[in-house]
Specification:
The protein contains 16 helices and 25 strands. The protein has 725 residues and is an alpha+beta fold.
Length: 725
């Protein structure tokens, strides 16, 4: 369209106003060629299928001049589509906008005032005096010097132009609600009220199958304009009554072919609904109306018998403006273009929900009487690249120890979720099997490399190389933590006196970094007195585009320093995330784990270091017997515990070297016995022959204990066993 006149006015406002003569026909508004259905035609009719009628009656150009206070100084909106838009001088331009759009548009106007850079061609709604809305394309231009203020150019978009603009705008978000809202706003160009109702399965991410009319469940996804509605009227988030679902299902699956229908007046609508309650729920107001129902459909999977219905859109308008066949074709074209975006959003929502369920399953459950844990996990917003691979975990280990693990898998979505789940479970299995943090990271490093091979990784379009992980093991008896780190951000340790510092081990590349010189993972050990707080987190909590990562860690350190020993740990974790996490929609997961170390009381533990001699087993029984009596261990349980201690010490003396360490820990009704030595040999339980005079000690231990095993230490190994006392 040519929007310039033959003259060259000095200001943008004059240019727009002068161009209006090119668009306003001499003789006023003409009647459109299309006509309503005749009285004897079907009440609910599909489009004729012919070429759409021309809609040349829509004059498209208008202009409004604003001063620096964003108030109207003059305007030229004489074209027919602007009827009811009041541009009285002195009124605020915001009065022309729906309330929800005022902050955004005001910011745009002010930005053009401040920078002098034009803001061109954005789809916008304007309010008419009767409460209806007009969809326009709005451009904001700075006034020509020496004048001050702005010129706002308004184009009441012709239907086809609006269709193409809307099709380009819809689908920019992977959020189902935002996609439905964009569609509803675009549909307003064809009516006074627009609604989008989606199958319940679309919201939940369930698999949408070919629908049977009676089984469609619909929920209102979007409704415009945004205003106060009569009591009982369905608004976004409400489920449609089953009767309404059957009616709309019939509309979109009539004759087994999804197609649009039109109910041309209120009497027809009320007869079709047949229930005053449904009329109040579905018909917007008490004035005469007509409605066009257009289905949201996508092609079914290969082998299916037909298309899949995702939902239905409704466009309501006054019956004196009947829906033309060309308009219905335009509506069907726009809705058809949108349906695939809704389906993509549904698939993204389903993937998002699956990953989120897996991620929350990996979160720590509860602590123990030696350590208290609390975690917060904030996933990325649904319209981002997908849930990330952040994970934290906390679980008990043999010997009364507790493992604290945090990791960040590269990427987002199901590929990252699969790698995250595999690494998390593997770390737990290896730690429970007795490997130390450094040895576990070595195995995880190999796993990440294997995940990236041709068959399992790159062929699926995902690579886990560069994932990070930090593992800490807390010993409540020695009040110490053993930690190893693979490229992850350093934990923060808050001492009981309130001082805090980061626990930085020797830097090591992330998992799977084959390009780096292969070095063993350093094991760092530090004291954690009772009352200490260990903070594990992922980068989403501390990253800020405007600051360095060190500044973010410094802010975290300052915030966790304020957590008092008597604070509720779950509430404290939530406060930390609230203060540090970005306020805008998250583009990366935010994960935090707080672990408050209580330790094991001295009267519940006993440790001895004995030389490796033939009488060491007897010496160990003599030392342990009074301790077990002090713990009020029953006679039979005490005898069983002494026999287990004797067998473990005998095994350490016979097959090990160096001194033998014996440790007993009472935890409620459970007794943990641990015997360490300086050898690396692993005791194995095997089936002996009837006449064998050796190898029966582990069978005795196996019979008397609830579980037993081996863990590896820096100096050798420790065999542990647990008994009920």
């Amino acid at each position: 369209m040519n929007a310039t006149s033959s003259s060259s006015p000095a200001s943008p406002f004059d240019m727009v106003s002068g161009a209006l003569a090119d668009y306003i026909p001499r003789g006023g508004t003409t009647q459109a060629a299309g006509r309503a259905a005749a009285p004897d035609e079907d009440d609910a009719r599909p489009p004729a299928g012919g070429v759409g009628e021309s809609d040349d009656r829509e004059q498209i150009l208008g202009a409004v001049n604003l001063d620096r206070d964003l108030r109207i100084t003059s305007g030229n909106v004489d074209a027919a589509p602007f009827a009811g838009v009041d541009v009285a001088p002195g009124a605020a331009f915001a009065d022309l906008l729906p309330p929800a759009d005022v902050p955004t548009v005001t910011r745009r106007l002010q930005r053009v005032l401040d920078t002098g850079e034009a803001h061109v061609a954005r789809v916008q709604r304007l309010r008419r005096n009767d409460g209806t809305e007009l969809v326009v394309s709005m451009s904001i231009l700075p006034a020509a010097t020496p004048q001050e203020g702005l010129t706002v150019s308004l184009i009441a978009m012709a239907k086809r132009l609006h269709l193409y603009a809307s099709a380009a705008m819809i689908g920019t978000s992977l959020d189902i609600g935002e996609t439905a809202q964009s569609l509803a706003q675009s549909l307003l160009a064809w009516g006074d009220v627009a609604a989008v109702d989606l199958d319940y399965a679309v919201w939940t991410g369930e698999a949408v199958t070919e629908q049977v009319q009676e089984r469609i469940r619909l929920r209102r996804a979007a409704l415009v304009p945004d205003r106060g509605w009569p009591e009982g009227y369905l608004t976004p988030g409400d489920n449609l009554p089953p009767e309404a679902s059957r009616l709309l299902a019939g509309a979109v699956t009539r004759d087994d072919v999804p197609q649009a229908i039109v109910l041309r007046d209120r009497d027809t609508i009320e007869r079709a609904l047949g229930d005053p309650r449904l009329v109040r729920a579905l018909v917007p107001g008490h004035q005469p109306v007509s409605v066009a129902c257009i289905p949201l459909i996508v092609e079914g999977p290969p082998g299916s018998s037909g298309p899949i219905v995702l939902g239905v859109t409704e466009v309501w308008r006054r019956p004196e403006c009947p829906f033309l066949d060309g308009e219905l074709l335009d509506l069907q074209e726009l809705v058809a273009k949108t349906a695939r975006h809704v389906d993509l959003a549904r698939q993204h929502q389903r993937e998002h929900a699956q990953v989120l369920a897996l991620q929350r399953r990996l979160l720590p459950r509860v602590g123990s009487d030696t350590i208290e844990v609390a975690s917060v996990y904030e996933p990325t917003t649904p319209d981002s690249a997908g849930v990330g691979g952040d994970w934290v975990n906390s679980f008990p280990l043999p010997g009364d120890r507790t493992a604290l693990v945090v990791g960040d898998v590269v990427g987002h979505g199901l590929g990252a979720a699969a790698a995250m789940g595999q690494l998390s479970m593997e770390a737990r299995a290896l730690l429970s099997a007795g490997l130390g943090p450094g040895e576990v990271l070595e195995r995880l490093d190999e796993t990440v490399t294997l995940l990236d091979d041709t068959d399992a990784g790159l062929a699926a379009g995902y690579s886990a190389l560069g994932s990070t992980c930090c593992i800490a093991v807390y010993d409540p008896v020695d009040h110490r933590v053993v930690m190893s780190n693979a490229g992850h951000l350093p934990p923060v340790l808050v001492h009981p006196d309130g001082s805090a510092k980061t626990v930085a081990a020797q830097p090591h590349p992330a998992l799977g970094a084959e390009f780096a010189v292969r070095e063993p993972f350093e094991v760092h050990e530090f004291a954690a007195p009772p009352g200490s707080l260990l903070v594990l987190y992922t980068d989403g909590l501390v990253e800020d585009p405007a600051a360095s990562i060190d500044d973010g860690i410094g802010r975290l350190t300052d915030v966790v320093r304020e957590v008092h020993p008597w604070d509720d740990l779950s509430q404290a974790a939530r406060r930390v995330v609230t203060r540090l996490a970005p306020q805008e929609p998250l583009r990366d997961d935010v994960t935090l784990l707080l672990a408050r170390m209580a330790g094991r009381r001295g009267r519940d533990t006993a440790t001895w270091q004995l030389s490796a001699r033939d009488d060491t087993a007897a010496r160990a029984r003599a030392l342990a017997s009074p301790v077990l009596r002090r713990w009020h261990t029953g006679g039979q349980a005490r005898d069983g515990a002494l026999l287990v201690i004797s067998e473990l010490v005998t095994n350490a003396v016979q097959f090990g070297t160096g001194p033998v360490t014996v440790r007993l820990v009472r935890a409620g009704s459970r007794l943990s016995c641990e015997v360490g030595d300086t050898s690396n040999g692993r005791p194995r339980l095997h089936r002996g022959e009837p006449l064998d005079d050796h190898g029966r000690g582990l069978h005795v231990v196996h019979k008397l204990t609830t579980r037993w095993g081996v863990r590896w230490t820096e100096t050798g190994k420790a065999v542990w066993a647990e008994l009920e006392i």
